[in-house]
Design a protein that fits this description.
alpha+beta, Nucleoside Triphosphate Pyrophosphohydrolase, seven-stranded mixed β-sheet
Length: 143
């Protein structure tokens, strides 16, 4: 996933973020020690490559990180990190029978956490608290 923790401005980067919610819990990953911002919690996702649509990038990133097949439900929100990366937050639904399996190169742990469980954690990637605040303020709704 595109990271807010960078050595310099990230202007022009564009990334997707998968919002997968089941029974009031979100699918959250702990970033591996081999990627930027190691050990932090975030939603799965990553950079949109040249020529890719948001949908194509979302499917590719979820396969790379979690071997997870999803249906794209809706675009929820667009935000920007303090480093200038534009994030597209996309509601996704797991396909029947598709279980997340962590790719050790990118994901150290898979968790299902409620907004309340996420709210006061100190190990969140910077964009996640922004998402939770926007959700709480009703900027968008998740079905």
């Amino acid at each position: 996933m595109a990271s807010e923790f960078s050595t310099g401005p990230d202007h022009g980067r564009h990334a997707v973020v998968a919002v997968i919610r089941e029974e009031s819990r979100f699918l959250v990953i702990r970033r591996s020690e081999l990627v930027r911002a190691p050990g932090l919690l975030c939603f799965p996702g990553g950079g949109i490559e040249a020529g890719e649509s948001i949908e194509t990038a979302m499917h590719r990133e979820l396969m790379e990180e979690l071997s997870l097949n999803v249906e794209i439900e809706s675009h929820l929100w667009t935000s920007s990190t303090r480093w200038g990366t534009k994030l597209e937050w996309v509601a996704c639904k797991r396909c029947v029978g598709s279980e997340p399996v962590a790719s050790p190169m990118e994901v150290a742990e898979i968790l299902w956490l409620s907004p309340e469980e996420l709210q006061n954690r100190a190990d969140l990637l910077g964009s996640l608290p922004d998402f939770l605040t926007a959700l709480e303020q009703g900027v968008f709704r998740i079905a």
